[in-house]
Amino acid sequence: MSIDFISHITSELNGIHSEGLFKAERIITTPQSRIVELEDGSTVINLCANNYLGLSNNPSLITAGKNALEKYGYGMSSVRFICGTQEVHKNLEYSLSKFLGFEDTILYSSCYDANTGLFETLLGPEDAIISDSLNHASIIDGVRLSKAQRFRYKNSDMQDLEDQLRASSKCRFRLIATDGVFSMDGYIANLKGICDLAEKYNAMVMVDDSHAVGFIGETGRGTHEYCNVIGRVDIMSGTLGKALGGASGGYISANGKVVELLRQRSRPYLFSNTLAPVIAATTIAALDMLESSNDRIQKLRQNTVYFRDNIQKAGFDTLSGAHPIVPIMLRDPKLSQKMAEMLSSKGVYVAPFSFPVVPRGTDRIRTQMSAALEIEDLDFAIKAFTEVGEYLKII
Ligand SMILES: Cc1ncc(COP(=O)(O)O)c(C=O)c1O
């Protein structure tokens, strides 16, 4: 490779380092869990996994996975339409449809793939996508791939959404796209307001519920349950890689005809390997667990309220809300990195978030609650936060 090119790449990397934006990957030597061990042998309480329901290392799911490996084999070595569809894939699509309240569901290798394969398949140049400004990168990239006209409204600003609906009134079909939960802030989208406007202006609604499926809403259906708009959202995408066991995989749930067209035309579905059957089977087991007990959802809620209350009382600047994502705002990349390092040395595992993951000047540590955590873990973490916060003169 050319020396000039490598030196260009090196200077890019040096720039990332000197701005305090370098994202180091720490190696975990244990399964994902409430407490994990790091490469240096230290153990840390985990406050940064998307392991909302504590299912990532759940013994019953591991058994379900082992049984699935025996029954279905390891890999499919195929995309779905060639020879990559087993009964277990259809069963998971059926289970997700039933759980979420949609006619049909299509599986993808990830929610990133689901979102990038959605918009260009369904909408053309005469249509419009009206997208929340804080939507996840996968929606943004999916919108970029489509030929539809693009409109953007300020985060959760219903007046601006209405303005954009008026501005796009000449378009054939209009789809409002929003995260159900804005993943950097933990804010839940105003789906009631969005659905009201969509109905008023004859637009459709798409929600990415990656940070909600399995635990938001009374029975964990997601933000459409939480906002009481089940049946009013047209398309939902989500991930299997967070609350529902945390392996990987994504889906889109919608009207049967919409899903049928996605199976015919959606590029990440057509041109990428099928979801491993072990994941499909284990996700069904996770959904069955949710149907049979609400305990994990309740525990997650209790942990969230406890941590939010006590970290605020300790004097930290947090974003308010009800979601298990609790961002601790530091507004400086180097300070965020320093704080995360110091917390790790005190036994609390958190990650700093800076540009480009969040806008410049909104650097933070994003903590995430889990049903796997115990109150003593949260007390331990709050004590460590307080000590480090005082040392760094944040509180
Ligand atoms: C809102 C949102 N959508 C989509 C994704 C991507 O999900 P996956 O890991 O399944 O690609 C994420 C993951 O970070 C997310 O937060």
Verbal overview:
- The strands form 4 sheets. Strands 3-11-10-9-6-4-5 form a 7-stranded mixed sheet, sandwiched between helices. Strands 1-2-13 form a 3-stranded mixed sheet. Strands 12-15-14 form a 3-stranded antiparallel sheet.
- It is of the alpha/beta class.
- The chain folds into 2 domains: 23-52 and 295-391, Alpha-Beta Complex (Aspartate Aminotransferase, domain 1); 59-292, Aspartate Aminotransferase, domain 2.
- It contains 16 helices and 15 strands.
- The mean pLDDT is 97.
- It is globular.
- The structure holds pyridoxal-5'-phosphate.
- Residues 110-112, 136, 138, 179, 183, 208, 210-211, 239, 241, 250 line the site of pyridoxal-5'-phosphate.
Largest sheet descriptor: 7 strands, mixed
Classified by CATH, the class of the largest domain is: Alpha Beta
Order of strands, widest sheet: 3-11-10-9-6-4-5
3D shape: globular
CATH superfamily descriptor of the largest domain = Type I PLP-dependent aspartate aminotransferase-like (Major domain)
Q: Which topology of the largest domain does CATH recognise?
A: Aspartate Aminotransferase, domain 2
Query: Which molecules other than protein and nucleic acid are bound?
Result: pyridoxal-5'-phosphate
CA radius of gyration: 21 Å
The CATH architecture term of the largest domain is: 3-Layer(aba) Sandwich
Number of domains: 2
